[in-house]
Amino acid sequence: MKLPKALLGAILVGITVQTTGCTQEELPGPRTEQGGEKGKEVVKVPDNCTACGMG
Amino acid sequence: MGKEPGILSTIACNLDADILSAAFPLLDEGRVEAIEWSFDTLYWAAEIPSWFTDLLLAYSQQNRLIGHGVFFSLLSGKWTKEQQHWLEQLKQLASQYSFDQITEHFGFFTGQNFHSGAPLHVPYTSATLRIGQDRLSRIYEACQCPVGLENLAFSYSLDEVKQHGEFLDKLVAPVNGFLILDLHNLYCQLHNFAISYEDLITLYPLERVREIHISGGSWEASVLEPEKKIRRDTHDDAVPEEVFQLLALTIPKCPNLRYVVLEQLGNGLKTESSRIRFRQDFLKMEALVQKSRSSLSRDVDNLFLPVQPLQKGPAVEDDMLHSQQLQLSHILETAPSYEDARQLLLASSLAGSAWKVESWEPHMLETAVSIAQKWKQ
Predict the structure, then answer these.
(1) Per UniProt, what is one Pfam family of this protein (chain B) (predicted)?
(2) CA gyration radius for chain B?
(3) B267 with A21: Cβ contact below 8 A
(4) Which domains does chain B have, with CATH numbers?
């Protein structure tokens, strides 16, 4: 399926500067929630993300 | 009856720089005919880059976006607030994108945390059947499109392997759903249980297969049986030649097949050589798909939508199953050895039950301990 050139260009820029994988440390704008030790805010990220493989 | 537009060469595509970098030349050449998005892996992200949303929308507008859930834990004995939240998120996404279908995995997750754990088998009982049918109905209500279920790679015994296809058929029947036949999962079972493809494939309801997955995996040594290697579905390597052979054999057997999907983990695509291999795998898959197009003439005779209204009511639960799943998860995640795990299982409420823990293959229990402790880390 052909994709618009503008979209392909945006993807190329995006994967160079923006994208992060599930297991990478710098994630784009992760949600946070209360519940860490002593009520500290903890970053909720899918560690060992099984979306990436089912072991 | 409309003319089937054909089988589509598809990649599993998530917001992952390594996957997207590997796939970009294929996207650029217009070769990727559909994408499969594991939509629930981004529930953690407050913001999805607009270019990724645009990519999803481009395929969505052509009815070539398919959703593949990972974290629903379909066969957990207890209904959880996380599952309810998952459905609400799916409903919202289904209003944003036009999914051609939504799928999930067979099994339940070990681990108390919804996002850490490994999917494991459940016994084929009336209780697990009711729960699975209930959950698939809820998924359909949320997405309003065909719903399917993927076969699991992991099993404890040959009997489980042989009965898997029939039970999947029963699970999806009320929603008139379909199956993802993951051929690497099948390959794991052929190897781990020494059963032939010809014997196993006939035990699957192949008329329900709307999607096929191919991927790579890895070998793990067994301490119990040093001469034996266990095949695991880790999605972190290129597709083995044997899986391509299974693909060539299986496509003609699946009259309702629409998607053939290449899946690989981003962490297996960090080097240029691995990305080149990924693209080679795609081209090999594409060639098999195109060959089948020229030799197969197919009409759509199953839309995989419910043929009668689905039953609504409170979520089905089973306290005994829930308790046994907690016990099993705890044992697998904490047992220091296979022998400890075996003794603990024989002393648990799973002993003498439909779980048939007494007949679990030692090397597969050893593997289950390894998987559960890997995800628990």
Answers:
(1) MbnB_TglH_ChrH
(2) 20
(3) yes
(4) 2-317 (3.20.20.150)
pLDDT value of residue A53: 38
| Reported ipTM | 0.88
- Give the max Cα distance, chain B: 59
| Token pair 């020494």 in the structure block, residue | B194
* Structure tokens belonging to residue B216: 């790579």
Interface of A with B in 15-54 (CB under 8 A): 15, 18-24, 27-31, 44-54
- To which residue do tokens 């990519």 refer? B55
Nearest CB to A54; choose among B40, B54, B153: B153
Q: Which 8-state DSSP code applies to residue A42?
A: E
This prediction has a pTM of: 0.90
B44/A18 CB distance under 8 A: no
Average pLDDT over residues B199-206: 98
Tokens of B71: 């974290």
Set of chain B residues whose Cβ sits within 8 Å of the Cβ of A19:
15-17, 20, 49, 52
Q: What share of chain A is helix, strand, coil (3-state, %, to 5)?
A: 35, 10, 55
Would you place residue B315 in the very low, low, confident or very high pLDDT band (cuts 50, 70, 90)?
A: very high
Which positions in chain A touch B71 (Cβ < 8 Å)? 50-51
Asked if residue B333 lies in contact with residue B113, where contact means CB atoms within 8 angstroms, the answer is no
Residues of B whose CB is below 8 A from A52? 14, 16, 41, 235, 265-267
CB atoms < 10 A from the CB of B46, how many? Answer: 11
The pLDDT tens digits of the residues spanning B167-193 come to 999 999 999 999 999 999 999 999 999
State the pairing for strand pair B99-105/B65-68: parallel
For an interface test with A, which of B43, B51, B185 has the most A Cβ atoms less than 10 Å from its Cβ? B51
The distance of Cα B95 from the centroid of its chain, to the nearest Å, equals 24
Per-residue pLDDT tens digits for B50-80: 999 999 999 999 999 999 998 899 999 999 9
